[in-house]
Design brief:
Blueprint: H1 2-5, H2 9-26, H3 32-41, H4 57-60, H5 69-77, E1 82-87, H6 93-100, E2 105-108, H7 119-127, H8 131-134, H9 141-145, H10 160-176, E3 182-185, H11 192-204, E4 209-214, H12 220-229, E5 232-235, H13 241-252, H14 258-269, H15 273-286, H16 305-314, H17 319-331, H18 337-344, H19 348-360, E6 364-365, E7 368-369, H20 372-380, H21 384-394, H22 401-410, H23 414-430, H24 434-447, H25 452-464, H26 470-479, H27 483-499, H28 503-517, H29 526-537, H30 541-555, H31 562-577, H32 581-597, H33 601-617, H34 621-632, H35 640-653, H36 657-670, H37 673-689, H38 693-707, H39 713-726, H40 729-739, H41 747-760
Parallel strand pairs: 1-4, 1-5, 2-3, 3-4
Antiparallel strand pairs: 6-7
Helix pairs in contact: 11-12, 13-14, 14-15, 15-16, 16-20, 17-19, 17-20, 17-21, 18-19, 21-22, 22-23, 23-24, 24-25, 25-26, 25-27, 26-27, 27-28, 27-29, 28-29, 29-30, 29-31, 30-31, 31-32, 31-33, 32-33, 33-34, 33-35, 34-35, 35-36, 35-37, 36-37, 37-38, 37-39, 38-39, 39-40, 39-41
């Protein structure tokens, strides 16, 4: 019986046949229930029975799929790595895919948990916490321990930006250990982090992924992901009148009013499978299937067809059970005895009896509603006052913070919700869940739109995520004189100006941010990191050294961190710029070691970027390449394009031209204006070496175009080298005024520039004799 209801028809039939053999050995006769199950397993319709209290299994799960032959064929022939089964709620998506792909591993995405990161993944893992399933994780077990205390491990505290990448790797390894595909049920309710995981998992190319989705509830975010995944879509439509008649015949067999019953069910359900079966079930409970269908009096004054039956079933429950069911509809998930007792202030014994009533009525099973349409209908039938009261009670329970936030908002307890949202945002930022942190701060700011400290944090996260952040940063500066939010906003504006090549504005903003930062304590290096990029581009080396030494002293009073690694790495880079290589190289390796010990992946990438140039100058480019590849494997960060630039330069230095094309072409397409200028300048050189003349000319033109948009000297000089070597006289006239008299801190680049000048017969420094 259990195997049949779980959709495992062959397993049910096998167990049933063994059961019959045992009955024969014992000389026993099958009971009526056994005979009903036998009819069900061989797909014979039931005989109408006189006892309306007994609901036959066939009404809980019809013996065969009806009207889905074309969709089954499409699913089995699909070559896509991601297939989405679309349809209305209750149309039969889950039954369809579970029967077509019985080997798939089922992960449910419950409504109400959209804000809880990795909810369906962690729920599945908790059900499969076996030693053999965890052994494949290796060092990533500690990363999962941050979300799964059941592992009994001390969770790591990695760099916030890299934490997500390590977690994704650990999750992927867990799910890759079995060959069967993954099936996400109700993907429209998946949280953002789960959607990111699916993209990460699909990119590995090891497993297929399937999903069921409510067609009318596809958000713009989910639609974007589906397109990125190139998901094949298979739509389940409502049944036709003929298909409804076939389903009715398979369930109840031939009846005197067969055609009239089928037409009535079709009109009442619109061919919607769940609605149809719920109506049929209600008719069976009323004993109406044996009577004239035209005589039925069913209340149709409800917003949805399914709510009609559900409400009519609810009112037949005991009053205390109805009371607890209302509370459960607000709680939505985790319908546990302890939680419902605390929420309703009723003793455990009464709550237990009510839960048993609800299980017997097939409304609640295993701590959740059998179908969310049941919950939605009960919830919608609550009065506004009662609904707010239950949400207020739920907000005081020991629930995950995001659930408490939603309950507070629904209960109009905005001040409590605001404080919880700030905690949620700060904690997510610390562990690298930047999208979730951004969502929390966004909602907090909507509650308190005058809190400029929240808006500043929001702008910083938007800048880190590559989202538009300038308007928010400028609004902070207009609205407040508080030092901390102003410093954060100025840092955002400085970073934006630098990425656009506007060094003048970038310097003004970051200098003011640093001045304000002197009035409050900081355990991070956000401002210094931005300032280093700007000051280095302006060749303000001594100011850089002073600033970084002070930051090093400040951060040394805190536990070792990625921020300290960033400062030391930047200090080493300045020593490289000022030809103090002997001082620089030990600092580079110290920064890299600190970043690794702190598990600060972003800082490790930053240290890898800086060390590459030092190693190249020390004729250790092969070592630099290995360091860069290791860092790139940690995922994509805001400074990854600079790492690609360094990797490509080292590959090119060793004569590995074809390999160098890949990172340069990536930066040319996706980088910011400064890295695009550098990439196009280098690509011109590479294409020339590879004999690709047309591509060389195009790259030269693009290098010039981007050089006109940036103020960063070393980027403009790289474009100038390309134009000197491969450009026209007209292009040369455009770029020389931008760079005349400037020198590159990179000795190799400087040598290339001077050689190109000699080739053209140009005296580049005649206007600056002191050079």
């Amino acid at each position: 019986r259990a195997a049949y209801l779980a959709g495992q028809r062959e397993a049910a039939l096998s167990a049933f046949n063994r059961f019959l053999l045992l009955l024969q050995e014992l000389g026993s006769r099958p009971s009526p229930d056994t005979l009903e199950l036998q009819r069900l397993l061989v797909a014979q319709p039931l005989e109408l029975i006189s006892d309306p209290k007994r609901i036959p299994l066939v009404m809980l799960r019809p013996p065969q799929l009806i009207g889905r032959d074309n969709q089954v064929k499409l699913l089995r022939q699909s070559q896509a790595s991601m297939v989405a089964i679309l349809g209305e709620a209750g149309i039969g998506k889950s039954r369809f895919i579970q029967e077509t792909l019985p080997e798939a591993r089922l992960l449910r995405c419950p409504e109400g948990l959209e804000g809880i990161s990795y909810a369906p993944l962690l729920a599945y893992i908790r059900q499969h916490l076996e030693p053999e399933n965890l052994s494949v994780l290796g060092v990533y077990r500690e990363d999962l321990a941050r979300f799964l205390p059941e592992l009994g491990l001390s969770p790591v505290n990695p760099d916030p930006i890299s934490a997500k990448n390590r977690l994704l790797e650990g999750l992927a390894r867990f799910f890759e250990q079995q060959p069967s595909p993954l099936l996400f049920d109700d993907l429209q309710w998946a949280d953002h982090a789960t959607l990111e995981f699916i993209g990460f998992f699909l990119a590995r190319g090891t497993h297929n992924v399937f999903a069921t989705i409510r067609q009318s509830e596809i958000s713009s975010l989910l639609e974007t992901h589906l397109r990125a995944w190139r998901a094949e879509r298979i739509v389940l439509t409502p049944l036709t009148l003929e298909e409804v008649a076939t389903l009715v015949l398979s369930v109840v067999g031939q009846t005197p009013n067969q055609l009239m019953l089928s037409r009535f069910l079709f009109e009442r359900s619109g061919g919607h499978v769940f609605f149809l079966l719920e109506i049929l079930r209600a008719l069976f409970e009323q004993g109406a299937l044996q009577h004239d269908i035209t005589a039925l009096q069913i209340n149709q004054n409800v917003p949805t067809r399914v709510a009609e039956m559900i409400v009519s079933r609810v009112v037949r429950l005991p009053e205390t059970t109805q009371h607890i069911l209302g509370a459960a509809s607000v709680l939505a998930e985790n319908l546990q005895l302890e939680l419902l007792s605390a929420m309703t202030s009723l003793p455990h014994s009464e709550v237990l009896l009510a839960l048993e009533d609800l299980e017997e009525a097939n409304m609640v099973q295993a701590g959740r509603f059998v179908h969310d349409l049941l919950r939605q209908s009960v919830y919608g039938n609550l009065s506004t006052t009662r609904r707010e009261y239950w949400h207020s009670q739920a907000s005081q329970l020991d629930l995950p913070r995001l659930q408490r936030i939603e309950h507070c908002l629904a209960a109009k307890q905005h001040q409590t919700a605001f404080g919880l949202l700030l905690e949620e945002g700060a904690d997510n930022k610390k562990i690298g869940l930047l999208h979730q942190a951004h969502a929390a701060y966004q909602k907090a700011f909507e509650l308190e739109p005058e809190r400029m400290d929240v808006l500043a944090s929001l702008a910083l996260l938007e800048n880190q995520l590559g989202l538009p952040s300038q308007n928010h940063a400028e609004l902070v500066l207009q609205k407040t004189q508080e030092a901390r939010p102003r410093a954060i906003a100025l840092n955002v504006l400085a970073s934006l100006a630098y990425s656009q090549g506007d060094l003048t504005s970038a310097a003004i903003n970051i200098e003011e941010a640093l001045r304000l930062a002197g009035s409050f304590a900081r355990d991070n290096a956000d401002l210094e990191e931005t300032a280093f990029d700007i000051f280095e581009a302006q060749m303000r080396y001594e100011e850089c050294i002073t600033m970084l030494e002070q930051a090093r002293i400040r951060l040394s009073t805190y536990p070792e961190s990625g921020a300290l690694a960033v400062i030391i790495s930047s200090l080493a880079a300045v020593y490289d710029d000022t030809e103090r290589a002997e001082q620089a190289l030990p600092l580079h390796f110290e920064a890299l070691a600190i970043a690794k010990r702190s598990q600060a992946r972003y800082a490790q990438i930053n240290a890898s970027i800086q060390i590459m140039w030092a190693l190249r100058n020390a004729n250790r480019s092969a070592e630099a390449i290995e360091i860069a590849k290791e860092a790139l494997a940690y995922g994509e960060f805001g400074n990854s394009e600079y790492l690609r630039n360094g990797l490509a330069a080292s590959l090119m230095f060793l004569g590995r031209y074809q390999e160098a094309l890949v990172p340069y072409e990536h930066n040319a397409k996706y980088g910011q204006v400064t890295t695009q200028t550098l990439a196009w300048g280098r690509l011109a050189n590479l294409y020339h070496l590879l004999g690709r003349t047309a591509d060389c000319q195009h790259a030269t033109a693009m290098a010039l175009e981007y050089a006109l948009q940036t103020q960063v000297p070393f980027a403009k000089l790289r474009a100038c080298i390309a134009v000197l070597n491969y450009g026209s006289e007209q292009q040369l006239e455009q770029i020389l005024p931008l760079v005349r008299g400037q020198r590159s801190p990179d000795t190799a680049a400087q040598a290339e520039l001077e050689e190109a000048l000699r080739y053209r017969g140009i005296k580049f420094y005649e206007e600056t004799p002191s050079s």
